[in-house]
Specification:
The chain is an alpha/beta fold and about 400 residues long. Helix content is about 40%, strand content about 20%. The chain has two domains: about 140 residues, Nucleotidyltransferase, domain 5; about 180 residues, ATPase, nucleotide binding domain (Nucleotidyltransferase, domain 5). Strands 5-4-3-2-1-6-8-7 form an eight-stranded mixed β-sheet, sandwiched between helices. Strands 11-10-9-12-14-13 form a six-stranded mixed β-sheet, sandwiched between helices. It binds adenosine-5'-diphosphate. The site of adenosine-5'-diphosphate has 13 residues, from helix 10 and helix 12.
């Protein structure tokens, strides 16, 4: 079964075509700068610089690429049985992979207010795919769904109940990634009632306590700004800062949002959110870059301690996404001084990455430290496939 996975952003569209259930990737690519003066379409080795006024033109190019006799991918777009869409916010309505119909689209629209930056683009992707691949079933996989198992003790904020009734609660994000890597970790551990902490450290970052294969708590909350220090987001801050910025320093709500979302985090602390540059600066002796990394890794340690206390233990700590998979320095700083908790890193294993997943824990440690590359697209394809068979 051929399953096309789409991840639609406001000006970009990432896609992968899988042959399922093998998980073989037939096409991988992206369209960038949609709606701008000059766009770019890339599929496997094919690259085209062209204007892409809307998502429609991007998907038309993809369809043409798939049908091209030279590429021999499909003879007819009918061969694409399913289009699986990543949808960021499913509120508390969507807890499972969902076949898309008019009602589902209406619901996704209702959730725009909870994810104003993401859900509108996700819906555009869905509506465009319905036009370009009319014979395929459209399926939505939600980034919040995995976290719907978080119990009330962890998803409820201590604010008046009328707001909880309006849906103001912890939702959590990066669920597709936390689910994928935690499942891999469960396979490696091979035990029941496993206690796992997954660290998704990309430009956005979050930590999740996965207890007995279910999300039990996560660092992001009602929105994606909470929790860990991130590339350009502040992570946890004292709420009074927001009132102070607005009331005393006269920033508008939009400006405050922009500051905390786009101008904070490592960009504010280190002057850049690219960890390769930050590590280079540290190696060259920059105290500012080192302090930034200490603040960053400390914000992660705080959640590790929190989650271990909640689960009364930990079997494995998982590192994933751009930074988690590629930065031995960040991994080492996170694990420093955690031997009391049974966490100790093996420097050799940490510094010598091998392909795919690997264990970097010291042989004397009780806790497995696993580097597991995330693959959200494959997880979407798998969940879409399971819904169909
Ligand atoms: P997102 O999908 O959220 O944009 P990614 O998971 O692709 O994020 O991660 C992006 C981050 O990964 C960037 O901050 C980048 O600096 C970091 N990164 C990528 N490769 C490396 C590397 N080799 N060493 C350190 N950091 C890296």
């Amino acid at each position: 079964m051929k399953i096309l996975v789409l991840n639609s952003g406001s000006s970009s569209l990432k896609f992968q075509l899988f042959d399922m259930p093998s998980g073989r990737v037939l096409v991988k690519g992206l369209a960038e700068r949609i709606g701008e003066k000059s766009g770019r379409f890339k599929a496997n080795d094919y690259l085209l610089e062209t204007v892409l006024p809307t998502h429609r033109e991007a998907l038309e190019l993809l369809s043409k690429f798939l049908l091209s006799p030279e590429n021999k991918i499909v003879k007819n777009t009918k061969e694409i049985t399913v289009v699986g869409h990543r949808v960021v916010h499913g509120g508390d309505t969507f807890i499972q992979p969902t076949l898309i119909n008019q009602e589902v689209k209406e619901k996704i629209k209702e959730l725009f207010s909870l994810a104003p930056l993401h859900n509108p683009a996700n819906l555009t992707g869905i509506e465009t795919a319905e036009k370009i691949f009319p014979d395929a079933r459209q399926v939505a996989i939600f980034d919040t769904a995995f976290h719907q198992t978080i119990p009330e003790v962890n998803h409820r904020y201590a604010i008046p109940g009328q707001f909880y009734d309006l849906g103001i609660r912890k939702y959590g994000f990066h669920g597709i990634s936390h689910q994928y890597v935690s499942q891999k970790a469960v396979e490696i551990l091979g035990k029941n009632n496993s206690k796992i902490i997954t660290l998704h450290l990309g430009n956005g970052a979050s930590a999740t306590a996965v207890w007995n294969e279910k999300s039990y708590d996560t660092s992001m909350g009602f929105g994606p700004m909470n929790g860990l220090v991130m590339g350009t987001r502040s992570g946890d801050i004292d709420q009074s800062i927001i009132f102070y910025l607005q009331d005393k320093l006269q920033f508008s709500p939009d400006e405050v949002q922009n500051i905390l979302n786009k101008e904070s985090g490592m960009k504010a602390l280190a002057g850049t959110n690219d960890f390769r540059d930050i590590e280079k600066a540290v190696a060259e002796g920059s105290k500012k870059a080192l302090l930034a990394l200490e603040i960053y890794t400390n914000s992660i340690k705080k959640y590790i301690g929190n989650f271990i206390a909640q689960m009364n233990g930990i079997d494995a700590l998982v590192f994933t996404a751009g930074i988690g998979e590629n930065s031995p320095l960040v991994r080492k700083m996170i694990c420093k001084n955690l031997d009391y908790l049974g966490i100790a890193i093996d420097d050799d294993k940490n510094n010598n990455p091998i392909d795919n997943q690997y264990d970097i824990s010291s042989e004397f440690a009780n806790v497995k430290l696993l580097v597991i590359p995330t693959n959200e697209e494959l997880e979407i394809a798998r969940q879409s496939y399971q819904l169909m068979v």
